[in-house]
Design goal:
This protein is an alpha+beta fold and 256 residues long. The chain has one domain. 36% of the residues lie in helices and 13% in strands. It contains 9 helices and 7 strands; from the N terminus they run αβαβαααββαβαββαα. It has a 7-stranded mixed β-sheet, sandwiched between helices. It is globular and about 60 Å long.
């Protein structure tokens, strides 16, 4: 990690986003033992809930043993197979399987999962760190912002700053909360021109985050460009000054 870039973004973020919460990051690789491993869950647990510790500045590594949710194991690449009943679980259910009713029919689920790519993470671990905890030894692949609408609007607009295609800067694919933060942005990171990913629209993950918070996950290839654009973008205009005042008010309301 280029620590000069780390510090430059932190300075600009505090300037233009009024000291809002810094992003968390993840990289995939061999475990060095330098970062604490997340404990094995005693029962089912959503990975999104565990990321709250990262947001507070506690760095953690995760592997397949750290995940009790089959969805997280799938999206993070520790298994390539869905549970046999998944097509019913995501749709209307069947005897013995309560359906989430996120898809109308099992056939839609089948079609959705056809030809799904996977992250090659077998034998590797995910290292999660908050942005300000990164060192020169780290190789983050994605920066994940947890933010309210005014901040999301700034990230969304900055992600589209160098794009002529209205869909070329940001995508919002359907999937689990961890999929929108990890799976989809990692796939984008492998592309020549990656896009940011809006997420946390998954109702099952919403209990794990504060009121009014969504995510914007940005592949590092794109994020480095976005940082470079900050001081020539809309962020220096009177329009953004008005939004900054809303960011301050929103922060005051949510801190009560």
């Amino acid at each position: 990690m280029d620590t000069a870039l780390r510090d430059t973004f932190t300075r600009l973020w505090n300037m233009y986003f009024d000291g809002e919460e810094l992003p968390i990051t993840f990289g995939i690789g061999e475990s060095t033992g330098a970062v604490e491993k997340a404990p094995v869950p005693k029962g089912w647990r959503c990975l999104v809930c565990d990321l709250a510790r990262i947001r507070k500045g506690i760095s953690l590594t995760f592997d397949g043993e750290s995940l009790s949710c089959s969805g997280a194991q799938f999206y993070l690449g520790y298994t390539t197979e869905r549970r046999p009943e998944f097509r019913y679980f995501l749709s209307y259910g069947k005897p013995g399987v309560e359906g989430e009713r996120y898809k109308r029919t099992p056939e839609i689920v089948d079609q959705m999962d056809r030809h799904r790519e996977t992250i090659p993470s077998a034998g590797k671990c995910y290292t999660f760190k908050r942005w300000d905890q990164l060192t020169e030894k780290d190789s983050p692949e994605v920066a994940i912002f947890f933010a309210r609408p005014e901040v999301i609007s700034g990230l969304f607009t900055l992600a589209n700053f160098d794009q002529s295609d209205p869909n070329g800067g940001v995508i919002c694919p359907f999937g689990a909360g961890c999929g929108s933060m990890i799976f989809w942005p990692w796939l984008e990171q492998q592309k020549e021109n990656p896009r940011a990913v809006l997420g946390l629209f998954d109702p099952s993950a919403r209990p794990c985050v504060p009121l009014d918070v969504l995510t914007c996950a940005v592949p590092m290839k794109k994020f480095e460009k976005m940082i470079g654009y900050m001081e020539e973008s809309f962020l220096i205009t009177p329009t953004w000054e008005k939004v900054k005042r809303k960011i301050r008010r929103s922060g005051e309301i949510h801190s009560r």
